[in-house]
Amino acid sequence: NPKCNGKLPPGSMGLPIIGETIQFFTPYSLYETQPFIKKRMARYGSVFRTNIAGQKVIVSTDPVTNYSIMNTENESLLFWCTDGLSHIFGNQNFLSQHGSVHKYLRSLVLHLTGREILRQKFLHEIDQTTRSHLHSWASSPGTVNVRDACAEMIFESSAKKLISYDESKYSKKLRQNYRAFKLGIVSFPMYFPGFAFYDCIKGRKHIRKVIEDIYQERKATKVPGHDFLDRVLEEVEKENAVLNDSNAIDLLFVLLFAAFETVSQSITLITKHLTDHPQVLAELTEEHEGIISRREDENSEVTWEEYKSMTFTHMVINEIVRLANIIPVTFRKVLKDMELDGYTIPAGWVIMMVLPLVHFDADKYEDPLAFNPWRWKGKELHTGTKTFMGFGGGVRPCAGADFAKVHLAVYIHYLVTKYRWSVVKGGEVFKQPALKFPNGLHVKIAEKHKI
Ligand code: HEM
User: Could you tell me the pTM of the whole model?
Assistant: First the structure.
């Protein structure tokens, strides 16, 4: 029984050291509440204690409590990564910053992911990349594993915007290393060969080295890349700069990961769900063919006005984000003893909020496990609410939500208007609690006018 100056929430700390880590990482289906959480809620109620990966954790499942925690950042409670994640992302990474430093970094990140840059510059680039990748998928003689092909497409697009990375120039392939890295990101932090965390840290070292080389070369030569790195270097070189070489490289590292992994998983899920739900596909096709019919040139690029007009597309995106729960849990660190739902949470513990629960609550969403984009009709689509926290909410909502949505909307636009596809293999999805596609999603895809 851990020490506490009050009443600790009920629960079990499991085995010495590993606590309940094994139970927490037990796989489960995309369309169910994590059994680890469900069982303990039934036994202990909406707040309980546990030990995951050596970290003392309070699990908070009540959406109203979670919403209020997400709106709080003060001397008692701060946004936090677990110790394992801090090790991976760097101790001074963006996610672990607070107050004015966080505010400053967030506004810097919005130069990469905010609406203005998306409207002025990136929508055009995303359009070009998506068109060319879909065209090459359709031109390939065999099948395409959408899971890998999407990861490649989004990685290429994000790495270009961030650091003008050109895969052909470097022997240490960034994406390959991100693969090892991501497998260990939600794992027990055991730095020993054979453990996913070990590969993850090794992957991190390689990736960081590539980013560092690009960073140092740019800093020395001062030849602009017309990318986010130019902006970062401007900040590093300011007097009294908040950013230094080390945390600037960590920032690039975190953003590259956040940008490509979340978006490529969402695109894979969208492709899968459109295959399985012809009615949704039909309504999307109608929306996008309508957009094309209103253009002077039917082959022109997607414009910002068109993007904003894609109401049904945004309903589909919200529905995918609601069901996928790509960020299954988020953390806050308790700095001073605090009260939560009648219990005392001691300083040093971590609160783990399980945001997906509200997305599967039958009182909030009728038939919650069904993929039903029409449920979003007339509802708020772009802000976090007490019942929709797919992109977080409160004081630190997702900084990349618009960036992700533009990628997804442009992909949907070209997929449904120009291509037909069928799944030939794979498509299974499970959670652990990160999303896993064990057999990928292999499709045969062809341009409509060639069929
Ligand atoms: C479908 C795609 C995405 C989903 C579902 C998603 C979800 C989330 C969620 C739930 C949070 C809040 C975490 C918390 O409160 O603890 C968050 C934060 C964040 N996301 Fe995303 N995200 C997505 C895409 C992206 C992309 C593409 C980027 C960057 C290019 C990004 C960058 C960030 C950053 C920097 C934060 C921290 C914000 C802050 O602390 O102020 N995300 N995201």
Answer: 0.93
